[in-house]
Amino acid sequence: MAADLKVIQDAIIRDFTEAVAKIPKPKTGYAGAQHYAAQVGKALDTAFRKHIGDDVLIDGFLTKDAAKLLVREPLTRGWDVVSAATADVQTALNEAAKVNIRGVTTKVNKRRVDGMVGVMSEDKFEKTSRLLPSCTDNIMRAAVDTTAWRNAAINSEVGLEMTVERIPDATACEWCQERAGVYPYDLVKEFGSDVWQRHRDCGCIITTSVRRSRR
Known about the structure:
This protein is mainly alpha-helical.
């Protein structure tokens, strides 16, 4: 079983990598980064659905060990792809603001990934697979948010005055609408702030900008 699972993991990663290579990279702005993240999430969902089937399920369940092998590594690769693209977006934003700082990536949020591993193995796959689109989308969008937060922290640390804006989408829930607006970075610099949080199926865009250098 372990050897078969490794073959399936390789197939998921191969198909995902090929699909991502065809997705246009975002050029400017966090709206573009979020759109890119959504497309990467769809590529992950497609690869998972194609290769996780009856041949790897036990009594209809994806075991915890199987979920770790088949879900964790592809999600991690997806996060890395999205974070790298977001770092490039931040570099472009910095250059436009005449700030000579390159955007940086962030490491995968293992808690989120492990949470999805747990969800995928807690019930029959026929049921948990319905959550795949929203879970992969959420984690890829979180990669954008985390990268935005890290870059805002770096810019703030070198003395730049930053703002953070949360823009709800057309179908935003009341919780998201209440948190919409523009905030001085110093008020929301902790990643635990609600402004940075994203629930499942959330389409909000969280963007940062350099307002001016501190004096």
